[in-house]
Amino acid sequence: WETSNAKGFVPEIYALDESPVQIARANADFPQIPADHRVNADMRRTPYDDGMFDTVVIKMGLHEVPKPDQVDILREVRRILKPGGKFVTWDLSFHDAEVQKVFQDLIRKKDEIAGFDSLVANRYFARQDEILEALNQAGFENTAVAHEVDARLTMRVRESELVSRLRLEIEEQKGAISDEDELSLAVLGKQRCTELVNFAKQYMANVSGHIKTQMHYEETEDDIKLIPNKEIIVGYKPQ
User: Beta 224-226 vs 153-154: how paired, if at all?
Assistant: First the structure.
C-alpha cells in the first residue's frame, strides 16, 4: 500500500478474510493493496510463511469462532509473526460474566432471526480475562489493554444485516436485485428488527438494574441502545 507516515515509512499491507463478500469489498475499496495481498482464507490456517509479519491486526474477528478456536487463531498469528512482532486485537471484551451472557443471548437471537445458523452455533464473545489468558496460552508476552473503544449499538441499524443472507440468495438465483426485491427486503428487514427489539425488551425486563447500568442500556419506542465493552489488546511474540 503506497502510503507513508510522518517518518516516511511505507508499510506493505496484506488483507485476509474468510468471507468472499468481505474480500470483494476490499477489492473495491482498497485497490492500493496488490491483488495477491488480498486473500480469502481461514485465519486458523493462513497461507503465510513462518515469521512473515512485523504486525498482525484482527478487528472484530476472534468472536466469530468458538472459544477453543480462538486460541488456535492466536497460535497461528504467533507463527506468522517475526520474533518480537506485535499482535493487535480490536474486539468485544467483557469484564463481567453476566454482562457477557446477556450480550451473547441478544446477539444469538439476532443471528437466529437473520438465519445465520453457523453464527448461532459458533460465535463466542469472550471476557477480557479470557482473551488475555488465550494470548498467554498461545505464547504471547507483555499482553495489555491498550485502548478502550466507544462501541454504541442500536438494533435499528441492523435492519439490512437481518436480511443480508436472503439478499445473497436472491442475487444467486436471479443474478441481480430488482427494485421490487429491494422494497420487499426493506420491509422484511424492518419486521425482523421489530421482532428483535421486542425480544430484547422482554429479555431485558428480567435483567437487573446493575447489569443494565453496566451495559448503558436504553429503550426507545421502537429500538434499544447499549454500549458493550470493546477494547484494543496487544501482545508480543517473544524474541
Answer: antiparallel
